[in-house]
Design goal:
By secondary structure, this protein is mostly helical. The chain has one domain (4-248). It contains ten helices and no strands. The chain starts with a helix and ends in a 17-residue tail after the last helix. The model is unreliable at 259-265 (pLDDT under 50).
Length: 265
Protein backbone atom coordinates (compact mmCIF):
# COMPACT_ATOMS: atom_id res chain seq x y z
CA UNK A 1 0.00 0.00 0.00
CA UNK A 2 1.34 3.46 -0.94
CA UNK A 3 0.85 6.01 1.85
CA UNK A 4 -0.32 9.57 1.30
CA UNK A 5 3.16 11.11 1.53
CA UNK A 6 4.49 8.71 -1.10
CA UNK A 7 1.54 9.49 -3.37
CA UNK A 8 2.32 13.17 -2.99
CA UNK A 9 5.96 12.58 -3.91
CA UNK A 10 4.91 10.73 -7.05
CA UNK A 11 2.52 13.53 -7.99
CA UNK A 12 5.36 16.02 -7.60
CA UNK A 13 7.50 13.85 -9.89
CA UNK A 14 4.70 13.89 -12.47
CA UNK A 15 4.77 17.67 -12.02
CA UNK A 16 8.46 17.81 -12.87
CA UNK A 17 7.83 15.55 -15.87
CA UNK A 18 5.07 17.90 -17.06
CA UNK A 19 7.41 20.84 -16.58
CA UNK A 20 10.00 19.00 -18.66
CA UNK A 21 7.53 18.67 -21.54
CA UNK A 22 6.48 22.31 -21.21
CA UNK A 23 9.97 23.84 -21.30
CA UNK A 24 11.35 21.45 -23.89
CA UNK A 25 8.51 22.29 -26.27
CA UNK A 26 8.82 26.00 -25.47
CA UNK A 27 12.55 26.00 -26.19
CA UNK A 28 12.13 24.02 -29.41
CA UNK A 29 9.37 26.18 -30.89
CA UNK A 30 11.20 29.36 -29.87
CA UNK A 31 14.23 28.17 -31.83
CA UNK A 32 12.42 26.68 -34.82
CA UNK A 33 8.97 28.23 -35.29
CA UNK A 34 8.44 31.98 -35.23
CA UNK A 35 4.75 31.47 -35.98
CA UNK A 36 4.20 29.20 -33.00
CA UNK A 37 6.14 31.28 -30.49
CA UNK A 38 4.25 34.40 -31.59
CA UNK A 39 1.13 32.72 -30.17
CA UNK A 40 2.72 32.76 -26.74
CA UNK A 41 1.70 30.09 -24.24
CA UNK A 42 -1.05 28.79 -26.50
CA UNK A 43 1.57 27.92 -29.09
CA UNK A 44 3.20 25.53 -26.60
CA UNK A 45 0.03 23.54 -25.96
CA UNK A 46 -1.00 23.66 -29.62
CA UNK A 47 2.34 22.03 -30.46
CA UNK A 48 1.76 19.31 -27.84
CA UNK A 49 -1.80 18.77 -29.08
CA UNK A 50 -0.58 18.21 -32.65
CA UNK A 51 1.64 15.19 -31.88
CA UNK A 52 0.57 11.56 -31.53
CA UNK A 53 -1.21 10.98 -28.20
CA UNK A 54 -1.23 14.75 -27.78
CA UNK A 55 -4.56 14.81 -25.93
CA UNK A 56 -3.32 12.21 -23.45
CA UNK A 57 -0.11 14.17 -22.88
CA UNK A 58 -2.14 17.33 -22.30
CA UNK A 59 -4.19 15.61 -19.58
CA UNK A 60 -0.98 14.38 -17.94
CA UNK A 61 0.26 17.96 -18.02
CA UNK A 62 -2.97 19.25 -16.44
CA UNK A 63 -2.52 16.88 -13.49
CA UNK A 64 1.23 17.39 -13.30
CA UNK A 65 1.19 21.18 -13.48
CA UNK A 66 -1.52 21.34 -10.79
CA UNK A 67 0.53 18.98 -8.62
CA UNK A 68 3.63 21.13 -9.10
CA UNK A 69 1.67 24.28 -8.24
CA UNK A 70 0.37 22.62 -5.05
CA UNK A 71 3.94 21.60 -4.22
CA UNK A 72 4.97 25.25 -4.49
CA UNK A 73 2.08 26.34 -2.25
CA UNK A 74 3.13 23.68 0.26
CA UNK A 75 6.65 25.11 0.02
CA UNK A 76 5.25 28.49 1.04
CA UNK A 77 2.80 27.62 3.79
CA UNK A 78 4.14 24.33 5.21
CA UNK A 79 7.84 24.67 4.32
CA UNK A 80 7.89 21.25 2.70
CA UNK A 81 11.06 22.37 0.87
CA UNK A 82 12.70 23.06 4.25
CA UNK A 83 13.76 26.63 3.44
CA UNK A 84 13.52 27.70 7.06
CA UNK A 85 11.69 30.56 8.80
CA UNK A 86 14.40 33.20 8.89
CA UNK A 87 14.21 36.22 6.55
CA UNK A 88 16.01 34.44 3.71
CA UNK A 89 13.81 31.39 4.05
CA UNK A 90 10.60 33.43 3.97
CA UNK A 91 11.82 35.38 0.93
CA UNK A 92 12.22 32.09 -0.93
CA UNK A 93 8.87 30.78 0.30
CA UNK A 94 7.03 33.93 -0.79
CA UNK A 95 8.73 33.68 -4.18
CA UNK A 96 7.13 30.24 -4.58
CA UNK A 97 3.68 31.88 -4.56
CA UNK A 98 4.32 33.44 -7.96
CA UNK A 99 5.51 30.08 -9.29
CA UNK A 100 2.38 28.36 -7.95
CA UNK A 101 0.04 30.89 -9.54
CA UNK A 102 1.93 30.73 -12.82
CA UNK A 103 1.74 26.94 -12.96
CA UNK A 104 -1.97 26.93 -12.07
CA UNK A 105 -2.48 29.30 -15.02
CA UNK A 106 -0.50 26.95 -17.28
CA UNK A 107 -2.55 23.99 -16.04
CA UNK A 108 -5.74 25.87 -16.91
CA UNK A 109 -4.53 26.55 -20.45
CA UNK A 110 -3.55 22.89 -20.82
CA UNK A 111 -7.04 21.94 -19.60
CA UNK A 112 -8.64 24.19 -22.22
CA UNK A 113 -6.71 22.42 -24.97
CA UNK A 114 -7.24 18.95 -23.50
CA UNK A 115 -11.00 19.31 -23.00
CA UNK A 116 -11.93 20.43 -26.51
CA UNK A 117 -11.52 23.08 -29.20
CA UNK A 118 -9.72 26.06 -27.71
CA UNK A 119 -11.10 29.50 -28.46
CA UNK A 120 -7.67 31.00 -27.72
CA UNK A 121 -6.53 34.49 -26.97
CA UNK A 122 -6.51 36.78 -24.02
CA UNK A 123 -6.72 34.31 -21.12
CA UNK A 124 -4.18 36.02 -18.89
CA UNK A 125 -5.27 39.47 -20.02
CA UNK A 126 -8.94 38.69 -19.30
CA UNK A 127 -8.03 37.36 -15.85
CA UNK A 128 -5.95 40.47 -15.17
CA UNK A 129 -8.83 42.69 -16.26
CA UNK A 130 -11.10 40.86 -13.80
CA UNK A 131 -8.62 41.40 -10.97
CA UNK A 132 -8.16 45.06 -11.92
CA UNK A 133 -11.91 45.62 -11.59
CA UNK A 134 -11.66 44.93 -7.85
CA UNK A 135 -10.83 47.73 -5.44
CA UNK A 136 -7.62 46.02 -4.33
CA UNK A 137 -6.88 44.56 -7.78
CA UNK A 138 -4.08 46.88 -8.96
CA UNK A 139 -2.13 46.42 -5.76
CA UNK A 140 -2.62 42.64 -5.90
CA UNK A 141 -1.29 42.43 -9.46
CA UNK A 142 1.61 44.70 -8.58
CA UNK A 143 2.53 42.58 -5.57
CA UNK A 144 2.28 39.44 -7.71
CA UNK A 145 4.73 41.10 -10.09
CA UNK A 146 7.09 41.74 -7.16
CA UNK A 147 6.77 38.04 -6.20
CA UNK A 148 7.77 37.05 -9.74
CA UNK A 149 10.67 39.49 -9.53
CA UNK A 150 11.86 37.92 -6.27
CA UNK A 151 11.56 34.50 -7.87
CA UNK A 152 13.61 35.71 -10.84
CA UNK A 153 16.41 36.84 -8.51
CA UNK A 154 16.47 33.47 -6.77
CA UNK A 155 16.51 31.72 -10.15
CA UNK A 156 19.57 33.75 -11.11
CA UNK A 157 21.24 32.99 -7.79
CA UNK A 158 20.63 29.27 -8.33
CA UNK A 159 22.10 29.49 -11.82
CA UNK A 160 25.32 31.06 -10.53
CA UNK A 161 25.77 29.17 -7.26
CA UNK A 162 24.55 25.73 -8.29
CA UNK A 163 22.85 25.40 -4.90
CA UNK A 164 20.05 23.37 -6.51
CA UNK A 165 22.45 20.40 -6.58
CA UNK A 166 21.93 20.01 -2.81
CA UNK A 167 18.47 18.63 -3.56
CA UNK A 168 19.37 16.22 -6.32
CA UNK A 169 20.44 12.62 -5.79
CA UNK A 170 24.10 11.81 -6.36
CA UNK A 171 22.99 9.33 -9.02
CA UNK A 172 21.96 12.13 -11.38
CA UNK A 173 23.86 12.53 -14.69
CA UNK A 174 27.10 14.52 -14.57
CA UNK A 175 25.66 17.17 -16.92
CA UNK A 176 22.96 18.11 -14.39
CA UNK A 177 24.90 21.08 -12.97
CA UNK A 178 25.33 22.93 -16.27
CA UNK A 179 21.86 21.99 -17.54
CA UNK A 180 20.40 23.52 -14.39
CA UNK A 181 22.68 26.55 -14.54
CA UNK A 182 21.68 27.43 -18.09
CA UNK A 183 18.03 26.64 -17.38
CA UNK A 184 17.72 28.72 -14.23
CA UNK A 185 19.48 31.61 -15.95
CA UNK A 186 16.91 31.53 -18.77
CA UNK A 187 14.04 31.26 -16.30
CA UNK A 188 15.38 34.30 -14.44
CA UNK A 189 15.05 36.32 -17.65
CA UNK A 190 11.53 35.07 -18.38
CA UNK A 191 10.28 35.49 -14.81
CA UNK A 192 11.72 38.99 -14.78
CA UNK A 193 9.75 39.86 -17.94
CA UNK A 194 6.55 38.44 -16.43
CA UNK A 195 7.09 40.25 -13.14
CA UNK A 196 7.79 43.58 -14.84
CA UNK A 197 4.63 43.25 -16.95
CA UNK A 198 2.55 42.75 -13.79
CA UNK A 199 4.24 45.66 -12.01
CA UNK A 200 3.50 47.90 -15.01
CA UNK A 201 -0.17 46.98 -14.95
CA UNK A 202 -0.61 47.01 -11.18
CA UNK A 203 1.50 49.98 -10.14
CA UNK A 204 2.14 52.02 -13.32
CA UNK A 205 -1.37 51.97 -14.85
CA UNK A 206 -0.43 50.12 -18.03
CA UNK A 207 -3.22 48.32 -19.91
CA UNK A 208 -3.93 44.68 -19.05
CA UNK A 209 -2.84 43.67 -22.57
CA UNK A 210 0.70 44.14 -21.22
CA UNK A 211 0.35 41.12 -18.91
CA UNK A 212 2.60 38.30 -20.09
CA UNK A 213 2.50 34.58 -19.44
CA UNK A 214 5.40 32.18 -19.98
CA UNK A 215 5.11 31.89 -23.76
CA UNK A 216 4.24 35.57 -24.22
CA UNK A 217 7.32 36.58 -22.22
CA UNK A 218 9.56 34.52 -24.50
CA UNK A 219 7.80 35.87 -27.61
CA UNK A 220 8.41 39.42 -26.38
CA UNK A 221 12.16 38.76 -26.57
CA UNK A 222 12.02 37.66 -30.21
CA UNK A 223 13.51 40.93 -31.48
CA UNK A 224 16.39 40.92 -29.01
CA UNK A 225 18.84 38.86 -31.10
CA UNK A 226 21.34 36.92 -28.99
CA UNK A 227 19.34 37.46 -25.80
CA UNK A 228 16.37 35.65 -27.36
CA UNK A 229 18.50 32.80 -28.74
CA UNK A 230 20.40 32.24 -25.48
CA UNK A 231 17.16 32.35 -23.49
CA UNK A 232 15.48 29.87 -25.86
CA UNK A 233 18.43 27.46 -25.62
CA UNK A 234 18.41 27.86 -21.83
CA UNK A 235 14.71 27.02 -21.66
CA UNK A 236 15.31 23.90 -23.73
CA UNK A 237 18.08 22.93 -21.31
CA UNK A 238 15.71 23.59 -18.42
CA UNK A 239 13.27 21.13 -19.96
CA UNK A 240 15.99 18.47 -20.00
CA UNK A 241 16.98 19.46 -16.46
CA UNK A 242 13.37 19.05 -15.31
CA UNK A 243 13.36 15.56 -16.80
CA UNK A 244 16.37 14.75 -14.62
CA UNK A 245 14.53 16.18 -11.60
CA UNK A 246 11.50 13.99 -12.29
CA UNK A 247 13.74 11.03 -11.51
CA UNK A 248 16.44 12.32 -9.16
CA UNK A 249 14.92 15.25 -7.22
CA UNK A 250 15.01 14.75 -3.44
CA UNK A 251 11.69 15.84 -1.89
CA UNK A 252 12.65 17.03 1.62
CA UNK A 253 10.62 16.26 4.72
CA UNK A 254 8.93 19.08 6.64
CA UNK A 255 11.30 20.83 9.07
CA UNK A 256 9.31 20.59 12.27
CA UNK A 257 11.81 22.70 14.24
CA UNK A 258 11.59 25.59 11.75
CA UNK A 259 15.34 26.16 12.03
CA UNK A 260 17.86 27.10 9.35
CA UNK A 261 18.14 24.01 7.09
CA UNK A 262 21.35 22.02 7.41
CA UNK A 263 22.30 22.64 3.78
CA UNK A 264 22.28 26.42 4.48
CA UNK A 265 23.82 26.31 7.97
Amino acid sequence: MVDKSEKFVWLVRVGYFSRAILYTVLGLIALTSAGQISRGTEGIFAAVESVALGQFVLWVMVVGLCAYALFRLASTFFDIENNGSDAKGWAKRIGHVGSAIGHFALAWTAYEFASGPNSGGGGAQDAAAGVMSMSFGPGLLGLLGVAFGVTALFQLKKAISGEFMHRISSGAPSATRWLGGLGYGARAVVYGVIGWSLVQVGFLSAGTEQVKTLGNAVASLAGEGAVFTITAVGLLMFGLFSLVLARYRIIPQLDLDREVPKFRA
